[in-house]
């Protein structure tokens, strides 16, 4: 709780009381009204100098209370200094030889001379001086000065309170001699209230915050403080009055006072303990309530989290179903077209007496269609970023020039193609086929965006940094940058974030699969780069492909060594005319296995077909060194092809194993765990080339121990 309003009210009430009392006394002297001089009938009056000091203190307290402006506070400090001067002047009266009597001079100046044995009391002068000094020091910059001011003000309060208690207890002798002689009751009361106002006028004091705060300490203090302070005073007055009236003896009164005070303090302690107990019970109930609310909130959060998770799962499932629907509208359409060509060609080939020219044309159509289907499969794998790439170092500018020539016929006569590339080579290490496919996909996408008419700009640059793209950090290393810009309709802002999603397309059903841009970003990501896009609706779009720049010399040497090794192996593994090499084919699909063995027979190999990996192991163990190589599918019931290859590597490390698969997770593995891999669908030429290489390598290994 903010205690400033309470401290401001205490300062205002104390200062106002001091000002009102002083003005009342001065009015009594001015108008010669005795009752106003002493306020309390039968008591000594307050002298004029004391009234002036009290008036100055009251005004100073009002001016320096919390919330006043700086000029007013400065004026209040001057008033406090004047009050201190008044108190100091009153003290000089009691310093020998006692000739300095300012109270008498002030009294004589306005109202006539003081009566004998009257004037400002020593206690009054000390209290006025101490209160004024305390008021001045409470605004000091140093902490120890502010603490000293508090102690001085407490001393003033003690002096004034003792003077007042002398009247309360009827101690006439107390006011006849000593420092409290001639101190009026109204003076003691007013100075006590002013001292309390000064003590509570600063809310920054810790004990002020404790007493006036809204916490438990403040509440308990405000409840106990009046009883602790007033009860002993009241009991002392009652005991003294009873002794004076003869009701009890002095010793008995003292004993009763001690007993009553003890019981009173015990009652206060019990009350305080009960309050603490009640608060503890209330806090315990509150904690239980809060615990229950917290548990309910946690249950609600868990339920809400579960609902959100279920909604997220439903959304993901809906997105999957949407992707499947788009796939059936795009990819399935393209596959149906390819299957139509194959089926029609086969029906024509079955006709008797078919001319050789037409037979050749239909065979070529089937072969070309199979290649197109394989390309579409590659795109499906590339957008998933699980395509098995074959990286090599090549000059991107040279490939760009070759693709640009092909694009002239692909784009049409109404699209002007502008290419820009540096004079120096831009080497990258990536899959050449995927690089060209990505460039063609970007060009086709631009052609469709321009409606077959406009300008297609293709620019190539080297030694460029990669900026931050879609929240991914940039890179200061060297990149080759390929930019494809069109003058088409542009891409809407709400669609830019989705253009790389698989199957997402704005084209009509059957006009596109939505895999082109997915292939581009999949290829770029797998190659260590990224793709950025910027578009303005109605003006065009720019796709920027970033590929890591290669060290041409080092990478070219590595590729040359690999090519040389492969060439040597192929030369040494040239096919022989006689059938003296046997291949173990492991394929669970009987039809695929038959086609594979037929291809191998046509290549001049002997074959044995096993439909499981377990059967293949049994054949090898039955007749060791019977087979020159093993050609196995990867995904099979029971033991898979990779596990079979590892077992054979342990049992027969010299026996070469070639794996084949069409699954993306196999193609994305690290070269199929170190074994040669042929991707489905494969041709007889591809299979024969791999087998010749591995068999030649096997012969080199077997011949090595006897070579000198």
UniProtKB/TrEMBL annotation:
It catalyses: ATP + protein L-histidine = ADP + protein N-phospho-L-histidine. Residues 287-321 form a coiled coil. CDD domains: HisKA. GO terms for molecular function: phosphorelay sensor kinase activity. Residues 582-695 form the Response regulatory domain. It comes from the Bacteria. The chain crosses the membrane at residues 9-31, 43-63, 75-95, 118-137, 144-167, 179-200, 250-270. Its EC number is 2.7.13.3. SMART domains: HATPase_c (SM00387), HisKA (SM00388), REC (SM00448). It holds the Pfam family Response_reg. The modification 4-aspartylphosphate is found at residue 633. Residues 330-551 form the Histidine kinase domain. It is an enzyme of class 2 (transferase). InterPro entries: CheY-like_superfamily, HATPase_C_sf, HATPase_dom, His_kinase_dom, HisK_dim/P_dom, HisK_dim/P_sf, Sig_transdc_His_kin-like_C, Sig_transdc_resp-reg_receiver. PROSITE patterns: HIS_KIN, RESPONSE_REGULATORY. Keywords: Coiled coil, Kinase, Membrane, Phosphoprotein, Transferase, Transmembrane, Transmembrane helix. This is histidine kinase. It comes from Methylorubrum populi (strain ATCC BAA-705 / NCIMB 13946 / BJ001).
């Amino acid at each position: 709780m903010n205690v400033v309003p309470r401290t401001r009210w205490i300062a205002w009430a104390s200062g106002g009381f001091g000002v009102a009392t002083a003005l009342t006394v001065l009015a009594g002297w001015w108008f010669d009204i005795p009752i106003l001089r002493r306020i309390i009938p039968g008591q000594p009056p307050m002298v004029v100098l004391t009234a002036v000091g009290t008036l100055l203190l009251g005004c100073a307290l009002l001016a320096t209370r919390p919330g006043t402006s700086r000029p007013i506070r400065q004026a209040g400090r001057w008033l406090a200094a004047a009050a201190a001067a008044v108190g100091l002047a009153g003290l000089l009266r009691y310093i020998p030889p006692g000739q300095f009597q300012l109270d008498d001079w002030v009294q004589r100046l306005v109202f006539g001379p003081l009566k004998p044995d009257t004037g400002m009391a020593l206690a009054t002068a000390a209290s006025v001086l101490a209160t004024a000094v305390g008021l001045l020091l409470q605004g000091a910059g140093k902490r120890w000065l502010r603490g000293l001011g508090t102690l001085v003000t407490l001393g003033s309060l003690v002096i004034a309170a003792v003077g007042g208690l002398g009247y309360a207890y009827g101690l006439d002798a107390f006011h006849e001699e000593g420092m409290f002689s001639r101190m009026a009751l109204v003076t003691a009361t007013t100075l006590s209230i002013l001292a309390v106002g000064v003590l509570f006028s600063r809310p920054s004091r810790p004990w002020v915050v404790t007493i006036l705060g809204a916490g438990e300490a403040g509440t308990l203090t405000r409840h106990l403080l009046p009883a602790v302070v007033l009860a002993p005073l009241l009991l002392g007055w009652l005991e003294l009055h009873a002794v004076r009236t003869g009701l009890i003896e002095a010793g008995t009164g003292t004993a009763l006072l001690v007993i009553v005070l003890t019981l009173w303090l015990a009652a206060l302690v019990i009350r305080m303990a009960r309050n603490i107990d009640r608060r503890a019970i209330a806090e315990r109930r509150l904690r239980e309530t809060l615990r229950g609310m917290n548990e309910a909130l946690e249950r609600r959060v868990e339920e809400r989290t579960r609902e959100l998770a279920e909604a997220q799962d439903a959304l993901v499932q809906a997105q999957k179903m949407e992707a499947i629907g788009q796939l059936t509208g795009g990819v399935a359409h393209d596959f149906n077209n390819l299957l139509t060509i194959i089926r029609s060609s086969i029906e024509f080939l079955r006709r008797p007496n078919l001319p050789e020219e037409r037979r050749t044309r239909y065979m070529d159509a089937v072969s070309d269609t199979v290649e197109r289907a394989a390309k579409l499969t590659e795109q499906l794998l590339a957008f998933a970023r699980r395509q098995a790439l074959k990286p090599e170092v090549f000059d991107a500018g040279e490939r760009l020039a070759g693709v640009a020539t092909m694009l002239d016929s692909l784009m049409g006569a109404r699209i002007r193609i502008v290419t820009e590339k540096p004079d120096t080579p831009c080497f990258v290490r990536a899959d050449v086929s995927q690089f060209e496919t990505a460039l063609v996909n970007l060009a086709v996408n631009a052609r469709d965006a321009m409606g077959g008419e406009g300008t297609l700009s293709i620019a190539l640059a080297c030694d460029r940094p990669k900026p931050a793209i879609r929240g991914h950090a940039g890179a200061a290393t060297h990149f080759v940058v390929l930019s494809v810009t069109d003058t088409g309709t542009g891409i809407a802002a709400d669609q830019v974030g989705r253009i790389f999603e698989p199957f997402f397309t704005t084209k009509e059903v059957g006009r596109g699969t939505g895999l082109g841009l997915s292939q581009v970003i999949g290829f770029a990501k797998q190659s260590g780069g990224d793709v950025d896009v910027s578009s303005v609706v109605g003006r065009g779009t720019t796709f920027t492909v970033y590929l890591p720049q290669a060290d041409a010399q080092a990478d070219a040497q590595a590729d040359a060594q690999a090519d040389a090794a492969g060439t040597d192996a192929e030369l040494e593994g040239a096919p022989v005319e006689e059938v003296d090499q046997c291949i173990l084919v492991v394929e669970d699909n009987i039809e695929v296995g038959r086609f594979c063995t037929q291809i191998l027979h046509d290549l001049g190999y002997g074959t044995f077909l096993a439909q499981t990996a377990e059967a293949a192991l049994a054949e090898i163990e039955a007749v060791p060194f019977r087979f020159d190589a093993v050609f196995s599918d990867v995904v099979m019931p029971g033991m898979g092809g990779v596990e079979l290859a590892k077992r054979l590597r342990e049992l027969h490390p010299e026996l070469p194993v070639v794996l084949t698969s069409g699954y993306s997770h196999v193609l994305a593995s690290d070269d199929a765990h170190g074994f040669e891999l042929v991707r489905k669908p494969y041709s007889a030429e591809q299979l024969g080339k791999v087998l010749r290489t591995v068999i030649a390598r096997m012969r080199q290994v077997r011949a090595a121990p006897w070579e000198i």
